[in-house]
Amino acid sequence: MFSPLIDDLINALRYLPGIGPKSAQRIAFHLLDKGRSKGLELSQCLSEALRKVKHCQQCRTFSELSLCKICANPKRDSQICCIVKTPLDLAAIEQTQTYHGKYFVLMGHLSPLEGIGANELGIPAFIEQVKRTKIKEIILATSSTVEGETTAHYLAEQLKTEVQKITRLAHGIPLGNEVESIDHGTLMRALLDRQDIRETY
Ligand SMILES: [Zn+2]
Fold first, then answer.
1. How far is the centre of ligand 1, averaged over its atoms, from the C-alpha of 144 (Å)?
2. What pLDDT is attached to residue 157?
3. Are the CB atoms for 103 and 83 separated by under 8 Å?
4. How many Å lie between the centroid of ligand 1 and the Cα of residue 73?
5. How far apart are the C-alpha atoms of 27 and 22, rounded to whole Å?
6. Most CB atoms within 10 A, among 61, 65, 75, 160?
7. 101: CA distance to ligand 1 center in Å?
8. 69 Cα–ligand 1 center, Å
9. What is the 3-state secondary structure (H, E, C) of the chain?
């Protein structure tokens, strides 16, 4: 519709998640009109990050360093490891500022239909790592979807003889919600996973 370079730019922007044709056009013209220096900065950051960011050798999260900041931090408790699906899940747990252990990032869930098995998620190497180190507790923080539950179950089976304690994130009632408005599945899990409040207060 436009000149070839502009069409290429719009098509490239459409590759981004959540960006439709109209938004792609708006962003392209914004960059060409008023945002050239910021746009060049963006293209430089993009190219640097895409070339240099790889996976942490220990936890598999994204990092341009061979060991990410968390794995390299001697103050983090290496006796406890939280297994998550993505680096975004890791970031969400970090933001709670209540967890001070290490992580393992699967970069996906088990999904035989998509050809994602234990090897694709680095699980055999992680089990070897658990055997070599002094990890006492594994927290399974995979999603509460079918794939997330299957992955948690598989990991629990594989790790049960290797660590003293395997825990799963509790499925509870969102803060500020009325009990009557909670969906059946969440309420059922919340009842099954109920806790003695003397442990938490
Ligand atoms: Zn790491």
1. 24
2. 94
3. yes
4. 9
5. 9
6. 61
7. 11
8. 7
9. CCCHHHHHHHHHHCCCCCCCHHHHHHHHHHHHHCCHHHHHHHHHHHHHHHHHCEECCCCCCEECCCCCHHHHCCCCEEEEEEEECCHHHHHHHHHCCCCCEEEEECCCCCEHHHCECCCCCCHHHHHHHHHHCCCCEEEECCCCCHHHHHHHHHHHHHHCCCCCEEEECCCCCCCCCCHHHCCHHHHHHHHHCCCCHHHCC
| pLDDT per residue as tens, the chain (201 positions) | 889 999 999 999 999 999 999 999 999 999 999 889 999 999 999 999 999 999 999 999 999 999 999 999 999 999 999 999 999 999 999 999 999 999 999 999 999 899 999 999 999 999 999 999 889 999 999 998 899 999 999 999 999 999 999 999 888 888 888 888 888 888 888 888 888 877 666
Q: Tell me, in angstroms, the distance from the centre of ligand 1 to residue 57's CA.
A: 7
- Measure 92 CA to ligand 1 centroid, in angstroms: 16
For residue 55, report the distance from its CA to the centre of ligand 1, in Å. 8
> Residue 1 Cα, ligand 1 centroid: separation in angstroms?
45
